[in-house]
């Protein structure tokens, strides 16, 4: 999608780092596995140009995924509210250049107060963006060590293409290993794995067409991990399968200094997205909040300026959360997404 984003008008508030003589910062248990665990996985370090995908038919569900980027990308930006344009006839565009790279969304599984949910990363892939994104779901290593691959098969898909005449995204599997659900995989896990593929290829191809899996070109639909795909699997409601808060920037292991812009998507009470910077002991050294562009019905973009100029150089964790007005007294608790950062 080529539509450029509009400037975000989210309000932000920040509490700067306490001095040595100020009252102590609040202390929290560090986000699991984050304090010392770093990764060298190839995360997308290029900045992203984002757009918003339209829902299918009258479905109001949307996801803020980027149009595939070509070569170099522009400065980091948040999604606009515009809709993608579609053609009534199949595209006649040439086959992707194997050496061309694109930025695509990839959905991995992470833990949440409501059980496993999907978390999004942006990654760089070569050649066909749809196939590259699908293969990242199947065999890619998440840049964030809190995430894990959703698919139980470590392999590659044969092809991914949008059939505009049929109104389907067709994903071809190379063999029948993908058809049945493994013995150690629950039905719920299988459905979430299929949704990881659905959200990923829809984002990469900028289409909300349902996803149908086939075993050969032009062949009938085949199941994926025991999930029937005949007629296509639509993307589930965001609030049912996605984490209710996600950090787009900073990325895992990002190097920051001075003031940086944090951004992502969330569905949080009254659109308030609290955030914190925690040191290696889990103590909160800087905190604030962002105001997202909406809440309740889907995930909306949020953005905030984070001032780390008063922090000593070293490793910290940036954490964005959903707001929990009950303080944990009601419901499952707040959703979190965190990224290890290096302050220089």
UniProtKB/TrEMBL annotation:
Residues 1-40, 56-112 are annotated as: Disordered. Residues 1-25, 66-96 have a biased composition (Low complexity). Residues 245-329 form the Bacterial spore germination immunoglobulin-like domain. Residues 26-37 have a biased composition (Basic residues). Coiled coil: none annotated. Signal peptide: none annotated. Pfam families: Gmad2 (PF10648). InterPro entries: Gmad2_Ig-like_dom. This is Bacterial spore germination immunoglobulin-like domain-containing protein. It comes from Nocardioides marinisabuli. The lineage of its organism: Bacteria, Bacillati, Actinomycetota, Actinomycetes, Propionibacteriales.
């Amino acid at each position: 999608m080529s539509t450029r984003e509009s400037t975000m008008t989210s309000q932000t508030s920040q509490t700067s780092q306490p001095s040595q003589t100020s009252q102590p910062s609040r202390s929290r248990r560090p986000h699991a596995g984050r304090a010392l665990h770093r990764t060298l996985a190839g995360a997308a370090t290029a900045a992203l140009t984002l757009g918003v995908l339209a829902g299918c038919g009258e479905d109001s569900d949307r996801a803020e995924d980027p149009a595939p980027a070509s070569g170099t990308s522009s400065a980091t930006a948040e999604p606009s509210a515009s809709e993608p344009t579609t053609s009534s006839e199949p595209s006649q565009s040439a086959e992707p250049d194997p050496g061309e790279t694109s930025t695509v969304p990839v959905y991995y599984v992470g833990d949440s107060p409501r059980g496993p949910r999907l978390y999004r990363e942006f990654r760089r892939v070569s050649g066909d963006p749809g196939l590259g994104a699908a293969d990242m779901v199947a065999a890619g290593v998440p840049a964030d060590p809190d995430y894990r691959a959703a698919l139980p098969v470590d392999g590659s898909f044969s092809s991914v293409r949008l059939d505009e005449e049929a109104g389907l995204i067709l994903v071809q599997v190379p063999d029948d290993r993908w058809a049945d659900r493994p013995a150690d995989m629950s039905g719920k896990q299988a459905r979430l794995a299929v949704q990881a593929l659905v959200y990923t290829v829809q984002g990469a191809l900028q289409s909300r067409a349902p996803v149908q899996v086939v075993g050969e070109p032009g062949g009938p639909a085949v199941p994926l991990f025991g999930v029937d795909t005949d007629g296509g699997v639509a993307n589930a409601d965001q609030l049912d399968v996605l984490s209710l808060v996600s950090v787009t920037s900073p990325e895992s292991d990002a190097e920051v200094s001075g003031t940086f812009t944090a951004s992502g998507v969330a569905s949080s009470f009254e659109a308030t997205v609290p955030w914190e910077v925690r040191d290696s002991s889990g103590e909160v050294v800087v905190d604030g909040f962002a105001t997202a562009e909406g809440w309740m019905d889907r995930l909306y973009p949020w953005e905030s300026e984070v001032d780390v100029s008063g922090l000593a150089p070293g490793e910290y964790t940036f954490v964005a959360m959903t707001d929990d007005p009950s303080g944990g007294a009601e419901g499952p608790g707040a959703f979190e997404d965190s990224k290890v950062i290096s302050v220089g």
